From TrEMBL:
Pfam family, one: MoCF_biosynth
Residue intervals passing through the bilayer: none
UniProt keyword terms in alphabetical order: Molybdenum cofactor biosynthesis
CDD domains xrefs: MogA_MoaB
Domain MoaB/Mog, first and last residues per copy: 12-156
SMART domains on file: MoCF_biosynth (SM00852)
Pathway(s) annotated for this protein in UniProt: Cofactor biosynthesis; molybdopterin biosynthesis
GO cellular component: cytosol
SUPFAM superfamilies, sorted: Molybdenum cofactor biosynthesis proteins (SSF53218)
GO biological process: Mo-molybdopterin cofactor biosynthetic process
Functional note: May be involved in the biosynthesis of molybdopterin.
Name of the protein: Molybdenum cofactor biosynthesis protein B
Annotated organism of origin: Listeria innocua serovar 6a (strain ATCC BAA-680 / CLIP 11262)
Length: 162
């Protein structure tokens, strides 16, 4: 088995919600605590409403602040107000399709066929920022962070630097 080298990754968390604030943002807090417990650095956690231009604007700001990884939560469903996919997927230069596929497979084991409506995705933006777009529920955020992001984050950053 290949030995994995740990790389401490600088991350930002962007919660997309019309109703949450920093105190009530349980998913953003959870993602932050899981990343920090795994040895990564979270330099900022921000909340922005479900508004495509504002989401894109905040992503650009966070990309400029020195983050290598941006994890969003919220707005990946199919409700009319869910615009995270539309706002951010167009910025992806190199998609990691397996992330969304495996996330939906793992979600299916927990929530059944409802998992198919998630538009969770991951990839590298044109500026080189690694983006993970997660659903807003704490269960989905925990699942993606623990099972997929934390185990592969150092590897993804190392591979991208080659």
């Amino acid at each position: 088995m290949e030995q994995k080298t740990f790389i401490k990754v600088t991350c930002s968390i962007l919660t997309i919600s019309d109703t949450r604030n920093l105190e009530t943002d349980t998913s953003g807090k959870l993602i932050q605590s899981l990343l920090e417990a795994a040895g990564h650095q979270v330099i900022t956690r921000v909340i922005v409403p479900d508004d495509a231009p504002r989401i894109k604007q905040e992503m650009d700001k966070l990309a400029a602040n020195g983050s290598f990884c941006l994890i969003t939560n919220g707005g990946t469903g199919i409700a009319k107000r869910d615009v995270t996919y539309e706002a951010l997927f167009a910025t992806i230069q190199q998609e990691i399709p397996g992330f969304g596929e495996i996330f939906r497979m793992l979600s299916y084991e927990e929530v059944g066929s409802r998992a198919m409506v998630s538009r969770a995705f991951a990839g590298f933006s044109k500026s080189g920022l690694l983006i993970f777009a997660l659903p807003g529920s704490s269960n989905a955020s925990r699942l993606a962070t623990e099972k997929l992001i934390i185990p592969e984050l150092p590897h993804l950053i190392a591979e991208r630097q080659k």
